[in-house]
Amino acid sequence: MDAARQEPLDLEGGARLVMKPLLNETARVPVPVPVQITVGGSVDAGITLRVDFSSSMYSTEFMEQVGLDLVQAMADIPKDLPISDLGRRESFSELSTEGTSEAPDVLELFYRWSSLTPDKAATIKGNLSLTYLQLSERIENIRNQLKKMNARTAVVSAEYGPDLVVALLGCLAAGVEYVPVSDNLSADRVEKIKLQIEPDVDITSQQGDLSLTPVVKASKTEPDKTQSEGLAYAMFTSGSTGEPKSVWISRKALARHVAAASQAGFVEQDDCILALTSPTFDISLDELLLPLTQGATVVFPAGGHGLKGVKDAASVINRSEVSVVHGTPSMMETLIAERWGEGSDIRRVIVGGERLDKELATKLMQRSSDVRNVYGPTEATIWATEHRVTSSQEDPPIGTPLPGYEIRISNDMLTVPVARNEVGRILISGEALAEGYGNLPDKTAEKFIIIDGKRWYDTGDLGRIQGGEVIFLGRSDSQIKLRGHRIELGEYESIAKTIEGVTAAAAACDGQQIYVLTRGTATRQALESVFVKMPQAIRPDLFANTDEPFPLTPNGKLDRAEIIKAVKKIEEGALPPSANESNDVKDEFEEWVIELWGDLIGRVVGRSSNLFDEGGHSLTLARTVSEAKEDLGLSLRMSDLYEDSTPSGIASIMRKEAVRVLED
């Protein structure tokens, strides 16, 4: 600060700007200089703002202007506003919606409707219909069996349909914590789940009959699920290690979510809601249980859940047998691909679990006048926000908190909210938060944090508040780094959707290559004409088009590992040994490159084949450099190889290097 002005600068309105040196020997970051502003000419009565910085970064004149701007900003504050209100919440990124004071238990709500409308259909699957009274009788039977077994925890793998509903509500009636598994989980994963929770009973079904089988436990100690009583269920997700991780939800949290969804009007008494989501995904509970707390009807497709039931589900929708469709964007795209027609009489579409883009939003608005974009992690009990889609000009926001939920956009340190319109981490608070992760106290403490006495969940998602609604900006860890570049997979999908004939797109990365799969009528030439315009280092390595539905995970989200397999399979059939028409090699250098690349990428390439179009990548070029040095004694530079990444182009560089070596 040796260059700073020492004398005070008098300003209009009696304010004075004083710039003073600050003695401090710690390192500085380039932020504004220390500034002292006094109001009314009295230093003692003023507000002091002191910020340290590297004085070589800014001139004294520039910092004087900063001071003037600060004075003007303070002059705009109402004179009667207490100093304690200067940081009022409206200035920061926080939103909340007041919820109802009452949140009855799910089972209590079901029995209420069972008493009011005993003869109304509660569930429908094909020709089988169960009334509320019939369903309650079956639930009571399961409850009694579980009570006799003194069960505390159950694994539920009942058939997708009425049996599943009976099993879930039977567990709740008996006070038994349940964990759903489904037939699309591998035997290894199911075994890992059972080892973690050590269930007392296994609930299965066959041909409409539920079976309760006691489980002999390997140990006599109870697993440490969470520190809370009154648990309802656990959903298993896979963390970064791929190991199943249990998220435990209390009955109170489930009741709070049901109250919020009811207040938001997700399901009404005269609705019939389509149940299509795998029971291992928590959003399935808004299809299986939520309708029964509102006096509505659950309709199951004959084929089962997920992709197995899609074709029948589309037919059910087109026959106007349901009024509410609920699921992920990927599932919605799949239903549309299975000829869910425009103009269908759907009262409400609730879509979440993945980013909703404007293209799909347009399609959904053509099928329903009430489209809701919802958002929420498993740890916040199903959904936490909603936005009613009225325009498809932009990707829809995820909206405002559901009643009883609170959203904060926080800084990276998770200590304070950022200003409105600034990007930050999405935190969620409310009584619907999960109890935590089973047997993972450190992970629970890391993700469920206390700020100013309030419990928040750190979603790991990025967002900002704009126009009073939350804009979802993806995962904080969703970027991938490849070939020295940071890449967002969603950008490839957005680019692909601009190609004529493309109705949907999905991108995936295996750590070395980028894969893009499109659906529609686009030709390979059309795809290539767009991707070739991208910088070579970040072009998709392999891309293909299909008319089949995209592969989905058991939870109805895009299965990116299967996307990679699908692209490879299509490419293997669509692309014969590349550029055979130009495979007349010119000399031994071209022959050497063609042979090397063939070994590295597993495909015969022609002399004019571009490495990146053939599935190669920067590592292939790196091997080319090292092999040329070892085999031929030639020193090649990676930067030169990028200029013309064909055997012909590389061979040309090698010839020049060979001449240089001979001359030396």
Structural overview:
- InterPro entries: ACP-like_sf, AMP-bd_C_sf, AMP-dep_synth/lig_dom, ANL_N_sf, PP-bd_ACP.
- By secondary structure, this protein is an alpha+beta fold.
- The chain has four domains: 9-82, no CATH class; 106-466, Rossmann fold (3-Layer(aba) Sandwich), CATH 3.40.50.12780; 480-574, ANL, C-terminal domain (GMP Synthetase, Chain A, domain 3, 2-Layer Sandwich); 580-663, Orthogonal Bundle (Non-ribosomal Peptide Synthetase Peptidyl Carrier Protein, Chain A).
- The chain contains 19 helices and 31 strands.
- Strands 5, 21, 22, 24, 25 and 26 form a six-stranded antiparallel β-sheet that branches. Strands 16-17-18-19-20 form a five-stranded mixed β-sheet, covered by helices on one side. The chain has a four-stranded antiparallel β-sheet with strand order 1-2-3-4, covered by helices on one side.
- Strand 3 (35-38) and strand 4 form a beta hairpin.
- Helix 3 packs across helix 4 and helix 9 packs across helix 10.
CATH class of the largest domain: Alpha Beta
Kindly estimate the percentage of residues that lie in beta strands according to DSSP.
Answer: 15-25%
Please state the average pLDDT score.
Answer: 80
* Low-confidence blocks of residues: 1-5, 22-45, 80-89, 575-583
CATH fold assignment of the largest domain: Rossmann fold
CATH architecture group name of the largest domain = 3-Layer(aba) Sandwich
**SS elements, strand count:** 31
- Radius of gyration computed on alpha carbons: 31 Å
InterPro entries: ACP-like_sf, AMP-bd_C_sf, AMP-dep_synth/lig_dom, ANL_N_sf, PP-bd_ACP
GO molecular function: phosphopantetheine binding
GO cellular component, one term: cytoplasm
Keywords: Coiled coil
